[in-house]
Specification:
Number of helices: 8
Radius of gyration: 24 Å
Order of helices and strands: EEEHEEEHHHEHEHEEHHEEEEEEEEEE
Helix content: 10-25%
Structural class: alpha+beta
Shape: elongated
CATH architecture of the largest domain: 3-Layer(aba) Sandwich
Distance between the termini: 25 Å
CATH class of the largest domain: Alpha Beta
CATH superfamily of the largest domain: P-loop containing nucleotide triphosphate hydrolases
Number of strands: 20
Strand order of the largest sheet: 6-7-8-3-9-10
Bound molecules: adenosine-5'-triphosphate, magnesium ion
Number of domains: 2
């Protein structure tokens, strides 16, 4: 277990800067997920921590020691990749124990450690098999065993589940979370899948274009996104965002297209007049009769089993509302979107940042955060 301190870390390839001054403090034993779209610099950041990429500027410390100039093997990190290349000609036991063999440990001691790690991953029955005789999930567990046996101070995972089918991904998510609960090893986990991030993380680091947009618990990034980017990226669907002009005197946002959306004036007492994006969660709004709330036109719906997501447009902008009754609509039908004023969140239309001057609401708005599965 070790804390990780990342201070003003930058990465440039030739003339192109891909990581723009990242600051992050990961506590000892914490499970932190780095989440962001493809190409935003997640793997680069992880590889700089592991020592597989040089750091162009800034400093990384692991367990209080600056590691900028240390070799990967001196850093105490074990990394698990998306493409976990196992040695195909070696058995599972030899794959897991390889690092110990390289380190010169005797056969008996190696066997004992391999068996202990294999048991913790449910691999004890596969020790004599070759990787080719395993399922994808079993192979992924072997890759994790290979990392675990080194008893690292830090686990670094780079999209380790993206090659697995949906069911296995969920199962492996559970394994990884359990492993963390048992070992308490500081963990950094990279993914572009926000559901994976929400279910695994103690805290999520949302990255965009080489910068950190927000660091927070799953509940914080869901309920109080710091930017329209985070708002749109987190949640299924993302936050509804409607452009308009804030009118603090009237306590409404004049939406493009002429409609008015009331917001909580007391909560946003510090917000001045200006161009904004008004946001609300699909599940925080209610579908209403035409003429009630915002006027919307139905486009299509998505069946989710327990609920349905109704997609439409209002004043030219897209809007999604979740619906739990069995109402049927046809494309082109009008409906109302009733948004409680307390559910409206405000962002600067120019910068995309959450408006300042917000008072803490009594409770975080929106729906419950996904429970860990
Ligand atoms: N060796 C390299 N030389 C030049 N540019 C690179 C190199 N490696 C990565 N990049 C660029 O750096 C940026 C960040 O890459 P990175 O692999 O960190 O993204 P990522 O967030 O992990 O994306 P993904 O989700 O697709 O894996 C990308 O624009 C990529 O093209
Ligand atoms: Mg990557």
């Amino acid at each position: 277990m070790a804390e990780i301190a990342i201070r003003s870390v930058k990465k440039t390839y030739g003339k192109v800067q891909v990581v723009h001054g990242v600051d992050l403090a990961v506590r000892a034993g914490e499970f932190v997920v780095i989440l962001g779209p493809s190409g935003c610099g997640k793997s680069t950041l992880l590889r700089m921590i592991a020592g597989l990429e040089a750091i162009s500027a800034g400093e990384i410390a692991i367990g209080g020691r600056v590691v900028n100039r240390l070799e990967p093997r001196e850093r105490g990190c074990a990394m698990v990749f998306q493409n976990y290349a196992l040695y195909p000609h070696m058995t599972v036991a030899d794959n897991i124990g390889y690092a110990l063999k390289v380190a010169g440990l005797g056969k008996a001691e190696r066997r004992a450690k391999v068996e202990a790690v294999a048991a913790s991953l449910g691999l004890e029955d596969f020790l004599d098999r070759k990787p080719g005789q395993l399922s994808g999930g079993q192979r992924q567990r072997v890759a994790m065993g290979r990392a675990m046996i080194r008893e690292p101070k830090v686990f670094l995972y780079d999209e380790p589940l993206s090659n697995l089918d949906a069911r296995l991904r969920v199962a492996m998510r559970v394994e990884i979370r359990k492993l963390h609960q048992r070992l308490g090893t500081t963990t950094l986990f990279v993914t572009h899948d926000q559901v994976e991030a929400m279910t695994l993380a103690d805290r999520i680091v949302v990255m965009n274009a080489g910068k950190v947009e927000q660091v927070g618990t799953p509940k914080e990034v869901y309920g109080r996104p710091e930017s329209t980017f985070v708002a749109g990226f987190i949640g299924t669907p993302g936050l509804n965002l409607l452009p308009g002009t804030l009118d603090p005197g009237a306590g409404v946002v004049h939406l493009e297209g002429g409609q008015r959306l009331a917001y909580d004036r007391q909560r946003w007492a510090g917000a001045g007049a200006g161009r904004v994006m008004a946001g609300f969660r699909a599940e925080a709004a209610r579908m209403a009769r035409p003429g009630q709330g915002l006027d919307a036109v139905f486009e299509f719906s998505e069946e989710l089993g327990a609920a349905r997501l109704v997609h439409g447009t209002t004043g030219g902008a897209m809007v999604v509302v979740s619906l739990s009754d069995g109402r049927d609509l046809s494309p082109g039908d009008r409906f109302g979107v009733d948004v409680p004023a307390g559910e409206v969140q405000l962002f600067d239309a120019g910068t995309g940042r959450r408006l300042s001057g917000e008072r803490a609401p009594a409770a975080v708005p929106g729906a419950p955060v996904l429970e860990a599965v």
